[in-house]
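Morning!

This is the sequence you dropped in the shared folder:
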Amino acid sequence: MTFQIVVEPRDNGGYVARAGSPFDWCVEAATADEAVAMLRDRAARAQVISLDVPVGTNPVAAVAGIAQGAEQHPLWAEWRKCMEENRLRDDQPAE
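The structure's back. Tokens below.
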């Protein structure tokens, strides 16, 4: 598996290395190479698996449209209303 990381110097010395989503790992070390090595070690020890959650037990998945027929879920209308209100609010010019 290959993913992008960011390695940055710290103002007070040392380096920070970050891997973004879905991992959200962050390490600090004295050198950039050490920080990269620490992330590499963390990735080597991690288990990355897929987790299937039945829609019947996860209403958020249904509302998000992950499953066919999501629009029949009781929360669908509420979710749509919230989204429409957010869009209207976000479209208003700044004062």
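Headline: The mean pLDDT is 81.

More detail when I'm at my desk.
O.
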